[in-house]
Amino acid sequence: MWRCPNCGQTFVSPNLPHSCHVVPLSAHFDGKPELLTIYERLLAAVRERGPVTENVTKSRITFQTQMRFGGIDAPRRDHIVARFVLTRPLESERLLRVDFIPPRYYDHRVRLDSPDDVDDELLGWFAAARDVGDRRHLE
Questions:
Q1: CA-to-CA separations, 75 to 8, 25, 30, 37, 86, in angstroms, rounded
Q2: 3-state SS of 25-90?
Q3: Which terminus of the chain has a lower count of CB atoms within 10 Å, N or C?
């Protein structure tokens, strides 16, 4: 793992583009306790499968094992947009969008309005994304 000498974040390859603007977690959730509850539920579920590093920057929070495999964008006023990476695109009416990231990844986005949105379907997607984070797709 390569560690950025400026911000201390780690990456699978040297000099990957990233934001060095590291902020405290509270910067994202100040005055938004209901959104913090959604985030904490998602993080707790992701951590049930093992340790995860949280990378908290101004624009997002990412979850990382070896690679960054998911997380959330900076919370909106009344909802969170969760993101996860897979090696294939999913189709679901829940997904806001799916973007191809060459050479082999698909970034999926889903809106979370309440803790109940952190359900079995979403957690299944994040479990598959964690396998990408563990780089199992390269074995």
A1: 23, 11, 10, 12, 22
A2: CHHHHCCCHHHHHHHHHHHHHHHCCCCCEEEEECCEEEEECCCEEEEEECCCCCCEEEEEEECCCC
A3: C
